[in-house]
Structure formats: structure tokens, C-alpha cells
Amino acid sequence: MNVSAVLRTVALGACASLILAGCTPGAPSEHRGSTPDGAADVTIGLTYIPNIQFAPVYVAEAQGTYGAAGIHPTIRHHGSDEGLFTALLAGQEDVVIASGDEAAVAASQGLDLVSIGRYYDAYPGTVIVPADSSIKGLADLAGKTIGIPGEYGSNYYAALAAMRDGGLQASDVTISSIGYTQRAALASGQVDAVVGFTNNDAVQMRLAGIDIREIPLGGAATPLVGASIITTHEWADTHPDQAKAIVQATTEAMDAIAADPKVAVEATSKWDTTLTDETALSGAHAVLTATIPLWSGQSGQADGVQDLKRWASMLSFLSSIGVLEGSVDTDSIVTNQFVSTDEERSSQS
């Protein structure tokens, strides 16, 4: 697979892992925040359409958290026809919120990518089955058909991780590429299970009145890393203060949302113009409720610190399933160098 193919692949995968409503046609959209003079210009890339899963970025802009950290933010939503890392590598963006597993696969092609901060503490992948399904655990997927958008991106990696956690081989299940039709495919019985995301597909199915159960992956043992704050080594090395400021301000906004979720809806509504009626707002609240724990983690406080051992396990797993096309080591793809220490956070609070 060549570099352009990887970029197309991760673009599709990002749609599955971060976007509630899926990929829709459209040009990139952006907005430059207002901050005090002297702040550094930083463009933050977000995938495709505005969504409350990006609320920490919206809140950090709206509440001036980026400005207080010395950042003059431009928030840029990607166009539907651009790759996840295309603008970043072209210098049109400075950081992008993207799934760690997809960044690792792209880095294996020699692309200059590094994760500088944790966005999701836990991996949101989940196996979804009808409530009355005989599938009670991952091992019960043996002999069943599992629906995924295609053999690429986070859904695919999560499906393979679920099989591994259930002690299954590829020959034990049937993987069916169904596009982004998980809801219809499951409801119609086209597949026995789908792999989706607990704060996305599962939420939408329940809102649609579909009676489902989730079978979680292996928790902390799952060898995958979800949404992360990704940049290039070149930018991080030449803008260390801005890199640290982005991580700190974004995670501060996560804690602000946990303390008062309505600030997330208020900030997101300036971007997501669909949040105008009770149904849309109810859906956004449901997604937010499922997403806050992903930001805060078991500690209940977001700090941006990345689990280097999990990254190492992920690289080993992705290599074992043959999706890494070159060598990627932990030191090259992830760093906590730009995460503020407890003392630094305390002194600035």
C-alpha cells in the first residue's frame, strides 16, 4: 500500500472513530479564535463535520483557555475528500485530533507523525449485538458474521482485537464489509454483530430504538490507542511551548466539561448548526455522557498523560496483524514531553 492509499484509509477510519454522523460532502470549515496580542497562531485540525466529541477544543476556544495559554487558535474541520493527515503534513494544520492506531499505521509508511497528548483515556471500540443475541462474550463470536465498514481503520483493528481477546482466529469468524451501515445491517439481521464505538454507534442505535447489548473489548488489555493529539516531530521540536500549551488547554477544557457539561453543548452549538431542536440536543447530550469518561479516565481528571506501555503493545499487535508496513518504535510515535507536570498545573491554577 502506498502513502496516498494510507491517507485515504485513515481518512475513512477517522470517520468511524470520531464522527457521530459520518462523513458528509463539504469543503473544509475553520474559525480563528480571538486571543490577546502576542499569542502564537496554532491551527487545530478536526475530522470532517462538527460534533460534540470535539467539545474540549470548542470549549477551550470559547472560554479563552487557549488564549490564556498563549495560543491564538484556528479550528479547522477537514473537507470530506482530504486525508486525515494531509493538511498536517502540508503545514496547513499544526495538530490534529486523530486515533492513535491510525497514526501508527500512517507512521509506518514513513510519515512524520508523533502523539503529544492523550485525548481519549480508553479505547471506545465495542462489539454490538441485538439484546436477544446468543452472543454473550467475545468467544461466542465463533461461527458468526461480524460487520465492519471495511478492512481498514479503527473498526477493523478493533474487530481483530476483539477476536484476539476472545481467543479466536480469522478462520473462526466471517468479517463482512458493510460500509457505514452498522445500524441497518444489525437491525435487519444481515450480520450477527457489528464493531462500533461506545460513544457513537451504540448511542445512535439506542436513540433509534434498537434494543442492543455491548460486549466490551478487553479493557486496559486492549492493545489499541484511541483519539490522541497528533502533530509532526518537526512542528513539536520547533514549537515546544505551543505543543505543551495545546495539550494543557485541551485537557483543562475536558475537566471543565466534566464539571459542567452544558458548556460543551453551548460551545459545540456554535459549530454544529443541527443542534437546534430537542431531538438533536438530546442526542448530543447522550453522546457527551458517553464521551466524558473517555476523556477523564479512571482518575476522573484529564491530564494528557499517555500510556507508553499501551502504545508499545499496540505497535506489537498492529505488526502481528500485518498492517504496519515499516518499523515504528514507541519513542518515535509517542511522547509525554509536552504534558504538563502536576506541579506545573498547580502553579497555573
Automatic annotation (TrEMBL):
InterPro entries (UniProt xref): NMT1/THI5, SsuA/THI5
Origin superkingdom: Bacteria
Any Pfam family matching the protein: NMT1
Signal peptide (residue range): 1-21
Keyword Oxidoreductase: no
Keywords for the protein's UniProt record, in alphabetical order: Signal
GO biological process assignments: thiamine biosynthetic process
Domain SsuA/THI5-like: 51-263
Name of the protein in its database record: ABC transporter substrate-binding protein
Protein's organism: Schaalia meyeri
